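hey can u check if this looks right to u? its 183 residues, i copy pasted from the old doc so theres a chance i mangled smth
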Amino acid sequence: MGVITLTNEIAEFIESQSVYFVATAPLSARGHINCSPKGGVGTLKVIDSQTVAYLDYVGSGIETVAHLRENQRIVILLASFSEKPKIVRIHGKGAYYEPNDIRFQELKHNFTAEHFGARTIIEVTITRVSTSCGYGVPKMQLLEERSTMSKWLHNKGEDGLRSYKASKNALSLDGLVGLTEST
C-alpha cells in the first residue's frame, strides 16, 4: 500500500542511492514510453516530505521534459543493490525548470553534485510512494562513479552545449516540444 509523504527512513534510502530510474509517457497510445537511468550521488534530493528533485543533465533525448510539459506524470524507481533489499517508487506530478527559471536557481543549492551541464531540474510533487521487498534484485557493488559525462560536458563547453541542446533537445521522439531555452 502506498502513502503520500516520505518517511525519514525512505528519504534516507532515496538520498543514499547512486542509481535511479525515471519513467514518463505521452498521452498518445502511439507515443513512446520513456525510462531513463540516472545516476550520481547528490543528483537526487528530498526537498521535503512531499517533494523530490533531481539534476537533469544534457543528454541525447528530451523525453522526460516533453512528457512533463504535456501531462506532468512521472515515476522515479529506486532499487537497493546492497545487502538489504528494497524498492521505492515515487509517483507524482513533475515540473521542469531551465537554468534561467527562478525555481531552478532556488533548487540548485540542494544538490551536492556538479551543476555544470544541468539543462533542467526536475521537481516532483509526490502523489504516491510505495515500497516493496526487492528480493528479486541482485546484489551488486558500485565500483566508482563514471567521469565520462562530466568530461563530455566540459569538453563541449557552454557554446557547444547550447548548440547540442538546440539540435538534440528541442523535440521528443514523438515530436513533442522539449526545451525552449536558447542558453
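The longest strand covers residues 118-132.
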